[in-house]
Write a structure and sequence with these properties.
single chain; about 270 residues; alpha/beta; TIM Barrel; seven-stranded parallel beta sheet; 12 helices; about 15% strand; globular
Length: about 270
């Protein structure tokens, strides 16, 4: 996940690394990572390279130079922007504008997936919010289809409710599965992946405590054997994105390299690599 190879310096666990994002491609290549899940957030969004053709050209140059690609864009902008409780006839245009713009940016940068996180303030736990989200997203689907972009949502919904939401869109909208977030909510990974595994296109690798925060991989409540074993049984072909706990500032390369070693053990064990 973008930003994990840049010191936090008080910016929190996840952010777009303005001024340092280019260096992450070289660092990722050095470690052996093959892609970056690119972040698009609301603060200073006009300075995000995805927002201009000049920036997108720079991204494509870095992909060519390092071999580190971009398959997905994490649209954290929607963590604060989606107006679930607004009068939708008046206020849906701004978030739709951002989403349509990101479809074009993803297409131009060579990405295939735009991830929409629906957590915390943008949670769909209330039924009326799910109804509003369906109304919001449905008009955007033809644009995404035209440009070959897939929308993938990450939610905190229980497995059966999540499947019901996906089926409303006829399977056109896919899923991001976050190992840590879901385990923290007490969900059974086998049940989740058995129910909706065919719609999962990205897996975020993270560990958390039950009803608690992010912790180093292997120290929380995630049953990684259950996760990888069930994904393997469903013939999962998508990416695995490290979105794990941060370590000490200025030791990001070492921290992420250890996380990659942890991930690779499971990828080899369950024959993903």
């Amino acid at each position: 996940m973008q930003g994990r190879l840049t010191p936090s310096r008080g910016r929190g666990i996840q952010f777009f690394p303005f001024g340092e994002w280019e260096m992450e491609f070289e660092k990722a290549a050095k470690i052996g990572l093959n892609e970056i899940d690119f972040i698009f957030d609301h603060p200073n969004y006009r300075q995000n390279p995805l927002w201009s053709q000049t920036g997108i050209s720079k991204i494509k140059d870095l992909i060519s130079e390092t071999g580190v690609g971009i398959r997905s864009i994490c649209a954290d902008v929607f963590m604060s922007l989606l107006p679930h409780d607004w009068p939708w006839t008046e206020n849906a245009n701004l978030p739709r504008f951002f989403l349509s713009s990101l479809v074009l940016s993803a297409y131009s940068a060579g990405a295939k997936i735009v991830e929409i996180p629906l957590l915390a303030d943008s949670s769909l736990s209330a039924a009326h919010r799910r109804t509003n989200f369906i109304s919001f997203l449905s008009p955007c689907l033809p644009v995404a289809e035209y440009f070959g972009i897939t929308f993938a949502i990450e939610t905190d919904l229980p497995p059966k409710d999540l499947l019901s939401l996906v089926l409303v869109f006829g399977g056109e909208v896919k899923l991001v599965y976050d190992t840590g977030n879901n385990a923290s909510l007490g969900y059974d990974p086998v049940e989740e992946i058995e129910i909706s595994g065919e719609y999962i296109v990205n897996v975020h690798i993270k560990d958390r405590t039950l009803n608690g925060g992010t912790v180093p991989l292997g120290t929380g409540v995630v049953d990684f054997d259950a996760v990888f074993g069930t994904l393997a049984s469903k013939n999962y072909k998508g990416s695995f994105i490290l979105q794990a706990a941060r370590g000490e500032d200025d030791k990001e390369v070492e921290t992420v390299a250890k996380q990659l070693d942890f991930l690779n053990r499971y990828l080899k064990k369950y024959k993903f690599i």
